[in-house]
Amino acid sequence: MSPVPPRVVVVGSPDDERTGRASRLAREFRVPHLAFDAATGTPDRDQGYVVDGLPDSVEGLQGLLALPTDLVVHLRPPGGDPDSEPARVLAYYEARGVVVGFPPDADDEDIIIAIEAAVRMRSRAGTAAHLLL
After folding, report:
1. Helix, strand or coil, per DSSP, at residue 112
2. By CB distance 3.0 to 4.6 Å, which of 17, 57, 71, 97 could disulfide with 118?
3. Hey, how many other C-beta atoms are within 10 angstroms of the C-beta on 130?
4. Residue 28 in contact with residue 1, Cβ under 8 Å?
């Protein structure tokens, strides 16, 4: 596990699946598990967090995606409507590497590996920026 606490947003999938996943990830990384409503006031960036949310509007989704994060985990439920506005927004961000999609039944370990890689990228970027100063 990385010494730098991750900043993660978990979206998609039904509430019980998403909330359970977010809770397990928060326990794994020893960071707070925040509900979408609690995260709208910009969580503490230095301590890390796992935000669990499924906003009911595209604006709310974009607000979640705008939080400072290492990784946005999209639990893509099968049979979802790919033409819905939220699905199109998530597809846009997935294509740009901001969001990583996983099937809802993906192993926690697969998601943990992706989070750890994203945190390493942030750590390296911070080290490189520090060296440039």
Report:
1. helix
2. 71
3. 8
4. yes
Angle at Cα 60 formed by Cα 26 and Cα 67, nearest 5°? 50
Spatial contact of 110 and 83, defined as CB atoms under 8 Å apart: no
Tokens 């409503």 -> residue? 37
Q: Any bridge partners for residue 7, and if so which? A: 49
Bridging pattern class, strands 71-75 and 7-12? parallel
Residues 6+ apart with CB under 8 A from 129: none
pLDDT in tens, 31-76: 999 987 776 666 666 789 999 987 777 888 888 777 888 899 999 8
Q: Give the H/E segment covering residue 108.
A: helix 108-132
Main-chain phi, psi angles of 8, to 5 degrees? -130, 145
**pLDDT tens, position by position, 74-89:** 998 777 777 888 888 8
Question: What is the distance between the alpha carbons of residues 117 and 133, in angstroms, rounded to a whole number?
Answer: 25
